[in-house]
Structures are given as C-alpha cells and as structure tokens.
Design goal:
- This protein has eleven helices and nine strands.
- The chain is α/β, with parallel strands linked by helices.
Length: 295
C-alpha cells in the first residue's frame, strides 16, 4: 500500500511540474534548493566533509558559496528529471546537445560496439532521452533499479520512449551478450559508490587526494570485449541547457594492465570536476570505506 501511495504522489508531481514552463520550474527549484540547504540541511555534513578533504585549498567563504551552488545543482537536476517526463524529443535534444557524435561513427559503421563512461555530473538524467536521434547507433544505458516497482516500471518505460534501451545493472552480463555484436553504444555511470560487498573487486585509485574504490564493471567489460572507451562529458552551458562531448579514453583496452582504464577514467573525472566542482554530486558518501580498514 505504501508503494502505491508513493507512486500516486510521484505521478501527481509529474503532472503538476510537467505543465510548468521552464522559468517557473526554476522558481520552484530555487525554493527547493533553499529547503534542502537551509531547512532540511540534506547531507550537509557529508558535503562539507567531502569538500574539505577533496578541495582543501578552498577557504571557508568560497566553500560556503560552493555548497550553495551544489545544492542548486541537486535541485535543478532533480526537477529537470521530473520535467523530462513531459518533454518532447525536440526539446530534449535542443537542451541536451551532443556536439561531436561523428567521433564514434567509424566504429559503429564497422559494426564495432563502444563503451561510453560518464558520471553523476550536471544533468545525466536527460542522457537516455537525448542520445537517440543524435547518435546513429543503438544506445544501451545501465541503471540501478528503483525500490518502488510501480515507479521503476514507469521511469524505465519513459526513459526508453525515444529509442534507448535501459538495462538494470543486475543484468549487465546478459545485456552485453545480447547487444555486443550489433554496433551498440553501452553507457555506464562509472562513479557509483562501491558497496561493501563489491569492495574486494574494486579498483582503488588516488582520487582527490584520497584512496577511492571504483567499480570494476566498466573496465571488466571494456577489456572482455575490447571496446573502444569514450568519456561522456556533460557540461551545463546555462540553466536548462547542456552540451555533451565525447572524448576517447582508450581505443584498445586489451593492451592495458588491470586497473589502468579505471585510473584513466578517474583522472578525467577529477579534471572535469576540478574545473567546475559545483556540478558533481558531493552528497554521496564516496569515501565511506577505507582500503586498509585495520590501519
């Protein structure tokens, strides 16, 4: 019953926010940001602790300003994600534009699948909707299944409505087997926080001055199928408008030692975040685990 009530509330919210023009949507986003930041103090201690350890050179005044911008990003991305349910494909592709899809075309035309790795940076939510129509290939995006089965089915159906296939990370191996020989673009958000049960297989990388566990999945499948791997860089141009650029991380993963591809990804991600730290999800407990817990 709780799941049904939650789902109904979610659907009502979609309807109400869906009819709002973007200028009014951002009025609500400003209010939502204020509530998260000042009233609910959503993961405030986590954000501050992450910033102090990762960006120690930032003074207190600059950090307070950055925290406010981080909450604004969280609020904007959340409401833009809800707004996406009522947006046309034309609206999505105009506001989430892939700048250089031609860089992967030679691989796709030859029947070669590729792997695109991205992060929870700026608006990643619109990616599954905007990719189809801008990239001349079948796109398969992996996602973590939602606990509420009603909302999960609705979200999955909506995010696939323009041609992208959404696959649960629980079925990663089977999904690669199903689509690997079809000139597919596989998309994975590789900055997910590693769970405790996955630590033994994680790659530990020096990331923002801290030993950080990264998921082994992207590298595992890139090397298994020797997939040319590209970083998907999403940048906010202005509020509600994003540009997506594809850049090669490695063309022949089979030549790399274990952990090298993940290190290349981490280095690229750190470079992106350093330039504009407010657009990353600092609210996640990414440094919850230690590489040497007994030390």
């Amino acid at each position: 019953m709780i799941d049904i009530i939650t789902a109904l509330s979610f659907f009502i919210g979609i309807i109400l926010l869906g009819v709002l023009p973007f200028p009014l949507l951002y009025v609500f986003s400003n209010l939502f940001r204020f509530c998260l930041h000042k009233i609910f103090r959503y993961r405030r201690s986590v954000i501050n602790d992450n910033l102090k350890k990762s960006l120690p050179h930032i003074d207190d005044k600059s950090r307070r300003r950055l925290v406010k911008l981080i909450y604004q990003n969280i609020s904007d991305v959340f409401l833009e994600g809800v707004k996406a349910f009522s947006m046309s494909h034309k609206q999505i592709t105009r506001r989430h534009k892939v700048l250089n899809p031609e860089v992967i075309e030679p691989y796709i035309k030859s029947g070669q699948s590729i792997l695109g790795v991205t992060a929870h940076y700026a608006n990643w939510e619109w990616g599954s909707l905007s990719a189809s129509g801008q990239i001349n290939a079948h796109v398969v995006a992996f996602y973590k299944k939602l606990n509420n089965s009603y909302i999960d089915r609705f979200v999955r159906s909506n995010r696939m409505k323009y041609g992208t296939t959404l696959a649960s990370i629980e079925h990663t191996a089977d999904t690669f087997e199903d689509y690997i020989g079809k000139g597919t673009v596989f998309v994975m958000a590789a900055d997910q926080r590693t769970s405790k049960k996955m630590l033994k297989n994680a790659y530990w990388i020096d990331f923002f001055n801290q030993e950080t566990p990264f998921l082994y999945g992207p590298e595992k499948y890139a090397k298994r199928y020797n997939l040319p791997t590209f970083y998907i860089d999403i940048q906010r141009v202005k509020r509600g408008y994003y540009e997506v650029r594809l850049s090669p991380l490695v063309i022949d993963p089979s030549k790399l030692n274990d952990g090298e591809l993940t290190k290349l990804y981490a280095q690229k991600l750190e470079e992106v975040i350093t330039r504009k730290p407010q657009d990353w999800l600092w609210s996640h407990r990414r440094w919850k685990f230690s590489k040497n817990p007994n030390n």
